[in-house]
Amino acid sequence: MRMTTDALVLRVTDTGESDRLVTLLTAEYGVIRAFANRAKKINSKMHGATQSLCYGDFSVYRSRDSYIIDDATAKEVFFGLREDIERLSLAQYFCALCAELVPEMEPARDILRVVLNSLHLLETKRRSNDFLKAVTELKLLSLSGFMPDLTCCPHCGEEPAGEFYFNVAEGCLYCRASGRGGIKINATVLAAMRHICSNPIERIYSFSLPADDEKLLMQVCEKFLLSQTKRTFKALDFYKSLI
Ligand SMILES: [Zn+2]
User: Fold this and answer.
1) Which ranges in the chain are annotated with CATH 1.20.1440.120?
2) Class of the CATH domain delimited by 2-76
3) Ligand 1 centroid to residue 233 C-alpha, Å
4) What residues contact 53, with CB distance under 8 A and at least 6 apart?
5) Per CATH, is 83-152+157-242 categorized as 1.25.40.180?
6) What pTM value is reported for the model?
7) 189 closest CA partner among 163, 162, 209, 169
8) How far is the CA of 33 from the centre of ligand 1 (A)?
């Protein structure tokens, strides 16, 4: 079976003298791990296109028990991200999230679009790191079956008003009277979360909020992500050690 698709290189592992094992986030086939033979050789056509954070067109075929990349053409390499260790580690964290959340052989065009948009904004420094991290985490979760319920308190059925709490384990809002725990959030942060979850991808970055609320949004989204995925991410830990 031969597959042609656009894809982002999430991770690269050197194997043997000159080969690479490449983890791809493809639009058509989800996350695929494929070998790129002789790609480490500098004169190989695939050398540039099979580096991490490269976005391009890939041709992949299935041999007996593995996938092989036999052609790759780079369209975008996000070179600017390599100049800044904070932004680079955040980009690697986004890649690790995709590798965790996207199954093999399921189309992932929307998730690929979110990550490409986030990498572009990260590279051009148009939005803060905190903002891009929060938007990316929450939208990737929403697209991967972890959409939070931000409508009303499941305890009393009331719209959130006054004091309310986002419960990261259950992915829902509780009022104070419910007696259920969570992170105390405010109307601005709730509006931001609703905006990210409910809007089409081209609109999810079109809002801004005061610095304190942006910080709170960043903390809530990170805790929600870690709670839902039930794991840690080396790239996230490294990013947080830098800031
Ligand atoms: Zn309630």
Assistant:
1) 83-152+157-242
2) mainly beta
3) 33
4) 8, 9, 77, 78, 81, 82, 91, 95, 119
5) no
6) 0.95
7) 209
8) 45
In the reported structure, the alpha carbon of residue 147 is separated from the centroid of ligand 1 by a whole-number distance in angstroms of 20
Query: pLDDT value at position 238?
Result: 97
User: Residue 26 has what pLDDT?
Assistant: 97
* CA of residue 227 to ligand 1 center, whole Å: 22
Ion ligand 1: residues, Cβ under 5 Å? 153, 155-156, 175, 178
Centre of ligand 1 to C-alpha 189, Å, is 18
Spatial separation of the C-alpha atoms in residues 95 and 97, rounded to whole Å: 5
pLDDT block averages, 10 residues each, the chain of length 243: 94 87 96 87 78 95 91 94 95 98 94 98 96 98 97 91 92 93 95 98 97 98 98 97 93
pLDDT at 160 (0 to 100) = 84
Chain region(s) in the chain for CATH 2.40.50.140 = 2-76
For the segment 170-223, what is each residue's pLDDT rounded down to a tens digit? 999 999 999 898 999 999 999 999 999 999 999 999 999 999 999 999 999 999
Helices (H), the chain: 85-101, 109-124, 129-143, 187-198, 211-229, 234-242
Q: How far is the CA of 171 from the centre of ligand 1 (A)?
A: 14
